[in-house]
Each structure stands twice: as C-alpha cells, then as structure tokens.
Write a structure and sequence with these properties.
Layout: H1 2-25, H2 30-39, H3 43-56, H4 63-79, H5 83-92, H6 102-114, H7 118-131, H8 137-149, H9 155-166, H10 173-185, H11 189-202, H12 208-220, H13 224-237, H14 244-251, H15 258-270, H16 277-289, H17 293-305, H18 313-325, H19 329-341, H20 348-360, H21 364-377, H22 380-392, H23 403-419, H24 427-433
Helix pairs in contact: 2-3, 2-4, 3-4, 4-6, 6-7, 6-8, 7-8, 8-9, 8-10, 10-11, 10-12, 11-12, 12-13, 12-14, 14-16, 15-16, 16-17, 16-18, 17-18, 18-19, 18-20, 19-20, 20-21, 21-22
This protein binds one DNA strand of 10 nucleotides through helix 4, helix 8, helix 10, helix 12 and helix 14.
Length: 434
DNA sequence: CGAATTTATG
C-alpha cells in the first residue's frame, strides 16, 4: 500500500519538477510566454521569461509577437522604476544582427516610450544612421508614439516637422493622429483643427479616430456648443465615417440624464453602428447614479445574453459597486463570482467595499470564499493589503483547514445570534471576538 | 492578432 502511495507521490513530484523546469528555463511558444507574462508581476521573472523566449528562437518566430513581449517586460520593469535595468536590457539589443531592420529598432524606440524614457528613444532614433537601418514612417511614428507615451507632448510637433523634413518622410494618418493627440493634450484644439484641415489638403484620410480625439478635447475643456457644432460640421457636411468611439465621446458628456443616453444609443443603432461595452457602461452608470438600479440590472443582464458584445471589467466593477451601495451585497457577490470566472475582476477598493458589506451582513461563507479566491488572484503588491483587511474583518480562518477553530467560531456566531434576537448589528461582537 | 481615440476612482 505504502509503496503504491510512494510511487504515486514520486510520479507527481517529477511531473511538477518537469513543469517548473519548462516554464522557468524554456518557453519556446509565444502564446505561452504571453500568458505567463500576464501572470508574472515580478519584473525579474518577466525579464527571464522574455530572455528565455528571445534566445530560444532567433529568426524563426513571428517578430511582431516577440516585440510585443518585449514591451510587456519593459512595462513591468518601469512599474518598479527599474530604469537602469530597462536601459541595459534595451541597449543590449543594439548589438543583435536584427538592428538593421527598421521594425526591430522601432520596437526599441516604442519600448523606451512606454518606460517614459523619451531621451533614450530619441537617441535610438538618431542612431539609426550608424546602424545602417533604413528610415520610413514606421520608425518616425514609433518616435511620435514614444513622445505621447512619455507625456512629452510638446516634442511631438517639433519632431514631426523636423524629421519629416530632414528625412523627406511623408506623414501618414497615424503620424497626423498623434500630432492631433498632442495638440489636444496641450489644450489647443485650434491647432488640432488646423491639423485636420492640413490632412484634408494633403489628401490624408480623416477618420473617426482623429475626429473623436478633437471632439473629446472640446468637451473636456467645456466648449460644449463648439463640440456640437463640430459634430454637425464634420458629420453632416463632410460625411466623416463614424464608429462607436465617436458616439462614446458624446455619450460621456450626457451624465445626468439616462433617458437621453438611451435615446442616443438608439440613434447610433439606427445609423448602423453597434454600441460597444463602453457605450453600455455609460448607460449602466447613469442608471445607477440616478437611483434606477433595476434598469441598470436589466441592461447588464441583456449584455450577458447578447451576441457580439461582452461586459468588460468596468461593467463588472460598476455593477458590484452600485449593488453594494444599494445594500444588495449578495447580488454583488454573484456578479463578483462571474467576474472571476471570466477573468475581469474589479479593483481592490470595490472588492474591499463588498467584503466589508458581506461581513456586516453576516454573510460569512461568501466573505470567506471571497478572501480565499482573491488570495489566489491578487498580485503581490495588493495581496498584503488584502490579507490585512481579511484579518481586520476576522476572515483569516477559512473554516475548512482547521476543524477545531471553525467549530469554535461557529459556536461564537451562534451564541451572538441567541444573544441578540432580532438585533441586526452583529458587527461589534465580530470585532470583539477577533 | 496590435500603430492614433473614448468609462468609472464613488
């Protein structure tokens, strides 16, 4: 008997070891690396995943995916403010043979942008002559994007003019799109509008994105009348092709009136444009803050049934928060469970609100289940605060591992029930017992 | 698979 057990255990251990070895040392497969990076929050681990992957295949893999993984790793490092590591890592790529390929250099430039290191991005762009890398709008746009990601908006028009002239590059709709974004961020919609006219003059297509960027900027600085006139001008006179994003900009500025929101969503459907999750989130939020929880729930329920649209993480967060606010904690808990199932879990503060509410309502089973679930799901930086919260609420015992402890706790709960028949505040006795 | 846009922080 014990031999069989031992054998089984040995086999189990060896598979586990083999698995650990494959994940740590070699990830040949790209989607595997991506999956793993999404879960790995330690920047060193992220770097290891990236380098094991990038050394594993030099030329064979689709380079676009590899570059995406590089940006993910840089993002993780930047979050921990490990800028010298980022520099060392990205600079080391400059000795690789692919440095003569423009997409490869562009990826380095964009990665520096993601890290907020705009001077390194610019230096890399200037080095391209030394590398012998050809220039096109690809690297030009990468540099502009790096400025935007670094929030160095004032540099965008400077680089835009200087480098397009110096290297004889013809800006495309993406270049112009980023120039427009920069002007909008610097609160000068006039210049953004001028850029739009320049695009028309040069025969570059003005699409929904560029248009929506300017529209949003106008609303944001409170020029509502001008925004509406701009919509009429561009849509009715110039026949711009709209998308859900354009309508979402308008929806975002109808806050207090759920009926108007609903009407505008119907209008977009009549125009043949499908509302996206963001559109529905505006409607749901508006119902919630105007005390129309049942209507909000109906939109949410329809969204779960609908084909082609899914609730996103913000949908679950809004529904959980406002259900809690209305005291509907069990309903909120059900929504939370679904969000876990689909991997779109609300943020820490929302879940804090929920677990506190469940505890106050004496829904201990649900509260403890929640603590256990999130112990597995939260990244390390949030896990500490979560464990502290669970401790304060007296939820650290999960009631299954230690039978004795859970019995004692159960007895205490029952006692408090008997003590205060009809009273609904069990919070104090809970605090006292911990 | 991807270049530029748009939510809510209660």
């Amino acid at each position: 008997m014990s031999l069989r057990l031992a054998l089984r255990r040995a086999r189990h251990l060896s598979t586990a070891a083999a698995e650990a070895e494959t994940t740590a040392a070699k990830i040949v497969n790209i989607s595997g690396a991506k999956k793993r990076l999404r879960k790995v929050y330690d920047p060193d681990e992220a770097l290891k995943v990236y380098s094991s992957f990038s050394t594993a295949d030099d030329a064979s893999a689709p380079p676009a995916s590899a570059r995406h993984i590089q940006e993910l790793a840089v993002r993780r490092l930047a979050k921990s403010r490990r800028f010298s590591d980022i520099e060392a890592f990205l600079e080391s790529n400059k000795s690789k043979p692919q440095i003569t390929e423009e997409p490869f250099v562009s990826s380095l430039i964009k990665s520096y942008g993601v890290a907020g290191m705009i001077d390194n991005a610019l230096a890399t762009y200037n080095q391209m002559a030394d590398f012998g890398t050809p220039r096109s709008t690809l690297s030009f746009n990468a540099l502009l994007l790096a400025c935007i990601n670094s929030k160095a908006y004032d540099r965008v028009p400077i680089f835009f003019n200087a480098f397009s002239e110096k290297f004889g590059l013809v800006p495309d709709k993406f270049s112009y799109g980023m120039l427009i974004k920069a002007h909008c961020e610097m609160e000068s919609p006039e210049k953004a509008k001028e850029t739009l006219s320049e695009m028309e003059k040069k025969g570059v297509e003005v699409g929904a994105v560029s248009f929506s960027t300017v529209l949003h900027a106008l609303y944001k600085i409170g020029r509502v009348d001008e925004a509406e006139a701009f919509w009429n001008e561009m849509v009715k006179e110039k026949g711009i092709k709209l998308d859900a994003g354009s309508y979402n900009v308008r929806l975002s500025h109808i806050r207090d009136n759920p009926e108007s929101l609903k009407a505008l969503i119907e209008e977009m459907q009549n125009e043949g444009i499908n509302p996206d999750p963001i559109s529905y989130n505006y409607l749901i939020t508006s119902y919630c803050v105007n005390g129309m929880m049942n209507e909000a729930e109906k939109v949410y329920a329809d969204l779960l049934q609908a084909k082609g649209v899914r609730p996103n993480a913000a949908t679950y967060r809004t529904m959980v928060f406002h259900s809690c606010k209305e005291g509907r904690y069990v309903k909120a808990y059900r929504i939370f469970k679904l969000s876990v199932k689909v991997g779109k879990i609300p943020d820490f503060n929302t879940l804090k609100y929920l677990v506190k509410g469940l505890t106050e309502k004496r829904r201990m089973v649900e509260a403890k289940a929640m603590v256990r679930t999130m112990n597995k799901k939260f990244p390390p930086d949030l896990l500490k605060a979560w464990e502290k919260l669970a401790d304060e609420l007296g939820l650290t015992r999960d009631g299954t591992e230690e039978a004795g402890a859970s019995k004692v706790e159960k007895a205490e709960v029952d006692a408090s029930k008997v003590e205060k028949v009809g009273a609904d505040s069990g919070v104090e006795s809970e605090k006292a017992s911990t």
